[in-house]
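2.7 Reproducibility. Because tokenized structures are sensitive to small changes in the input, we list the exact sequence used for DUF4439 domain-containing protein, including any N-terminal residues retained from the expression construct. No trimming or masking was applied before prediction.
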Amino acid sequence: MSEPPSDPLAPPPGATALHRPFSRRSLLLAALAGTALAATGCTSSTADDADAVTPAQVDQLAAQVQVQEAVVAAYARAAAAAPDLAAAVSPLADQARAQLDRLRAAAPGAAASSAAPSSAGPALDPAGARAYLQAEVTAAADAHAGACPDFTGGRAALLGSIAAGLRGQATQLAA
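Resulting structure tokens (single pass, no recycling of outputs):
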């Protein structure tokens, strides 16, 4: 005579409540509780700690604001030297100004200057305006990318994003 098939989830004979296997529901609840506990332990204590900058980083951010101001000034200078180029690069100049505004907002103590960035300097040859502008944008992208590893969080992301945007602009200027 054959024995009835045994239930694999049934406790062995003589097992107490402490030795019963977990039900699917209790296993799921334990996994969710463990995940929630792990997620809570992996977050930082405050958002302010992650956003804090050292005095050296404040100086670095101020320098990056100046780099971006130079890009905005380069667009103005190139547009003044070559009016036909001005119309073509106007959207790029607007993007550079927006990047400058975001960088100023992220830099502690960096207020927007009341004066527009200066486009003064020696006269720019209209035929070389595009190459000049491309070189200035590329140099700024290099500077922002070089400063990026010194930061964490949002400021690192901002510098990386601006560097990438400027690299895209340099590519458009090369065309």
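The radius of gyration is 30 Å.
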